[in-house]
Write a structure and sequence with these properties.
Layout (H helix, E strand, L loop, with lengths): L2 H23 L4 H18 L2 H8 L3 H15 L8 H10 L5 H5 L6 H28 L16 H21 L4 H18 L4 H18 L2 H21 L1 H18 L7 H18 L10 H8 L14 H28 L4 H20 L6 H15 L15
Helix pairs in contact: 1-2, 1-7, 4-15, 7-8, 8-9, 8-10, 8-16, 10-11, 10-16, 13-14, 13-15, 15-16, 16-17
Length: 405
C-alpha cells in the first residue's frame, strides 16, 4: 500500500474541512483567511492525488491562465528597478492565483460545493445584520469609523454583500420550497443596505450590474427589457430619495472637476486618475514586458512629484496594475483569465454558470476602480469562488449546455 492509499484520503478529508471553515471566515478576518487558506493548500498537497488533480486541471483555461500569470510575475522579478522586498511583496499579494487550482480538489462533490456556499451565506448574513445594527444603534464589534461597516472598509464589505445579494436572488430562483421567500427577504434587506447605508460607490455600481445580469439570465428578452426599465426607474427614485446614494455620485463629479482644475489631486477620484495615468506612462515606456514585478512604486516616484501626489505601490485597477508591471504580455494573460471564465461558464451546470458569470462581472466592474485581484479580502473571496464554481468543468458535457436553468 503506497502513501496515497494510506494517507491521501485522510488529508483530502482534512482539506475539505479546512476549506469549509475558510468559507465562514472569508468576510471576517484576513488573518484567519490566510491561515485556513494555507492549511487547506498544504492538506491538498499532502493528499498527493496527482492523477486526479491533473484530470481536474487539464484543459481548464482558468487554471492555466492563473498559473501562467503567476509564473510571469516570478520571471518579471529578473528585471526592473524594484528592490527584492518590493518584488516579494508583490508575489505575496498575487499568490492567491495559485490557490485556484489547489482549492478545486475540495469542491469535486456537489455536497461540498453546496455546504461551502451556504456557510458563506450564513457568515455574510451575520455581517449584514451587525452592519445594520451598527448603522442604527451605533452597535460595533470593531473600531471601524465607517457608519455601516463592522470588519473591513466600505469597499470590501460592500463588494462581498453585493455578490451575496446576487446569491440570495439565485437561491430564491432555484428553490421550490417556502424557504425561497426567506432568501428574497434577505436580498431586499441587502439592497436597502447597499443603496441607503453603505458608502461604497464601487459596491453600488457592482450591485446594480449584478441585478441587470440576473434579469437577463433568468428572463426572456421581452420581460428582461421591461424589468430593466423598472430597475432603471427604481434607481432614479433611489437617487432622488436617498441622500447617501446621490451624494456619493455627486462627489465623484465634484472630485473629477476639481482634479481638472488642479485642485483635487488627493481626493478619491483624483488619486485614482493619477495612478491610472502613471500606469499608462509605464506601459508606454516599457510596452512589451513592463517595469517588472513590484516596480510600480519606484517608477511612480520617478514620474511624479511625491510631495504633491500620494505615492502608492499599485494602480488601483487590475488590468493597469498588471500591464504596468508585465507589459502587453501580462495584459493578454490576464485577459485570457477573464475570457477563460466567460467561455468555461457555458459548460457548467446552469446554477454554477450563472454564479460564475456574476463573479466575473463583479471582477470586471470592481477591477476598474480597485486592484481586487491583489487586495487580500477581495482576492481570497474571488479565487475561492472561482475554484468552487469552475470545479465542475472537468465533469462537463461535450457540448455547451444551453438550458437557461
Amino acid at each position: 500500500m503506497n502513501y496515497q492509499q494510506r494517507f491521501g484520503y485522510r488529508w483530502q478529508q482534512l482539506a475539505i474541512i479546512m476549506g469549509l471553515t475558510l468559507a465562514f471566515f472569508l468576510p471576517w478576518s484576513t488573518a484567519l483567511t490566510a491561515i485556513f487558506s494555507g492549511i487547506t493548500v498544504i492538506c491538498v498537497l499532502l493528499a498527493a492525488n496527482w492523477r486526479a488533480y491533473y484530470a481536474l486541471w487539464r484543459g481548464n483555461l482558468v487554471v492555466i491562465s492563473s498559473m501562467l500569470l503567476y509564473l510571469l510575475l516570478i520571471v518579471a522579478c529578473a528585471y526592473g528597478t524594484a528592490t527584492w522586498p518590493q518584488r516579494l511583496n508583490e508575489l505575496r499579494h498575487y499568490l492567491v492565483f495559485l490557490y485556484i487550482p489547489l482549492f478545486m480538489p475540495i469542491f469535486q462533490q456537489e455536497r461540498w460545493r453546496q455546504y461551502a456556499l451556504h456557510i458563506f451565506l450564513i457568515s455574510m448574513t451575520l455581517i449584514l445584520v451587525f452592519s445594520i445594527m451598527k448603522y442604527y444603534l451605533q452597535f460595533s464589534i470593531s473600531a471601524k469609523s465607517d457608519p455601516a461597516t463592522i470588519i473591513h472598509d466600505h469597499i470590501s464589505e460592500g463588494l462581498l454583500l453585493a455578490f451575496t445579494g446576487y446569491l440570495y436572488l439565485a437561491q430564491w430562483r432555484q428553490l421550490k420550497s417556502n424557504w425561497r421567500w426567506l432568501y428574497l427577504g434577505c436580498f431586499l434587506v441587502t439592497a436597502i443596505y447597499l443603496l441607503f447605508m453603505n458608502t461604497g460607490r464601487t459596491a453600488t455600481l457592482t450591485f446594480i450590474g449584478l441585478l441587470a445580469l440576473f434579469i437577463f439570465q433568468q428572463l426572456s428578452l421581452r420581460y428582461g427589457l421591461l424589468t430593466l426599465l423598472g430597475l432603471a426607474i427604481a434607481i432614479v427614485l433611489t437617487f432622488h430619495f436617498s441622500p447617501n446614494f446621490s451624494n456619493r455620485f455627486h462627489l465623484v463629479y465634484q472630485e473629477v472637476n476639481a482634479y481638472q482644475t488642479g485642485k483635487g489631486m488627493n481626493t478619491s477620484s483624483g488619486l485614482r486618475i493619477t495612478w491610472w495615468d502613471a500606469a499608462g506612462k509605464m506601459l508606454q515606456e516599457h510596452p512589451l514586458l513592463g517595469v517588472g514585478t513590484g516596480g510600480y512604486e519606484n517608477n511612480f516616484s520617478r514620474l511624479y512629484d511625491t510631495q504633491k501626489y500620494q505615492i502608492t505601490d499599485q494602480a488601483n485597477n487590475d488590468l493597469l496594475n498588471i500591464v504596468a508591471q508585465l507589459g502587453i504580455i501580462g495584459g493578454l494573460v490576464l485577459l485570457l483569465f477573464y475570457v477563460g471564465q466567460a467561455w468555461q461558464s457555458w459548460y457548467l451546470p446552469s446554477h454554477y454558470r450563472h454564479s460564475a458569470q456574476a463573479l466575473l462581472l463583479l471582477m470586471l466592474i470592481s477591477g476598474l476602480f480597485n486592484s481586487v485581484l491583489r487586495d487580500a479580502v477581495e482576492a481570497h473571496f474571488i479565487v475561492y469562488f472561482i475554484a468552487l464554481f469552475h470545479a465542475p468543468f472537468s465533469q462537463r458535457k461535450t457540448s455547451v449546455d444551453t438550458n437557461a436553468g
